[in-house]
Amino acid sequence: NHPSGDVSPCDDDIQLTRRLVKAGEIMGIEVLDHVIVSEKGYLSMKEKGFI
C-alpha cells in the first residue's frame, strides 16, 4: 500500500517479493513479477532486478 503515490519499493516490499519468490519455488510456481501501482505510475520489481 503506497497512499502517497510514490512507487519506490520500501524494505517491506522488497522482503515480501523475496518471500513470494521463495514460496513459489517451494510450490513449483514461478513468480513473474511483483508490481506496485499508484495514480502516479507503477514499478516492476522484475524490471528493477528484485526478481
From TrEMBL:
MPN domain: residues covered: 1-51
Gene Ontology MF terms: metal ion binding; metallopeptidase activity
GO BP terms: proteolysis
Superkingdom of this protein's organism: Bacteria
InterPro entries registered for this protein in UniProt: MPN, RadC_JAB, UPF0758
UniProtKB keywords: Hydrolase, Metal-binding, Metalloprotease, Protease, Zinc
Protein's name in the database: JAB domain-containing protein
Species of the source: candidate division TA06 bacterium
